[in-house]
Structures are given as structure tokens and as C-alpha cells.
Design a protein that fits this description.
By secondary structure, this protein is an alpha+beta fold. The chain contains two helices and two strands. It has helices spanning 21-30, 45-57, and strands at 36-39, 62-65. A two-stranded parallel ribbon has the order 1-2. α2 (45-57) links the parallel β1 and β2. The longest helix is centred in the C-terminal third of the chain and has 13 residues, at 45-57. It is globular and about 40 Å long. The N and C termini lie far apart (31 Å).
């Protein structure tokens, strides 16, 4: 049974040295824990998607909450 779907994107700043996902993975493998990623919160689709990506790619990324989230 399908419960939900979500679309997530990977973005880097225009001045980033990464021009492909492979380049990002190679850098992350050579520099464990030095890349950060933001999500709207622990357990959100962005957090879970990036956790899955990092596990499959064999890299370690630092998670932090984005400051631009609306708090209820």
C-alpha cells in the first residue's frame, strides 16, 4: 500500500565546485563529515531522502535544521 509520495531535490550554490552528483560523492568520501545539508526537521522527507542517499553513496553528511522554517 502506497502511503505517500514526495519529491526532493539536491541543490548546491552556483559557485560550488560540484558539477555532478559523482563529484559531490567523491568529495564527501575524501572529506567525511565536512559537507552539511539542511532539512525542515528530523524525520521529514528531505531528511530521510538525504539519509538514504548518504547511506547508498557511502558518505557521511552533517544534518542541520534550516533557519528559514516557519514554526507553529
Amino acid at each position: 500500500m502506497l502511503v505517500a509520495t514526495a519529491q526532493d531535490v539536491m541543490m548546491v550554490p552556483p559557485d560550488s565546485p560540484f558539477r555532478s552528483v559523482r563529484e559531490l560523492i567523491d568529495y564527501a568520501k575524501a572529506n567525511p563529515g565536512k559537507l552539511n545539508y539542511a532539512s525542515l526537521g528530523t524525520g521529514t522527507s528531505g531528511h530521510l531522502a538525504t539519509t538514504l542517499f548518504s547511506d547508498l553513496a557511502g558518505v557521511r553528511l552533517q544534518h542541520f535544521l534550516t533557519a528559514n522554517t516557519a514554526r507553529r
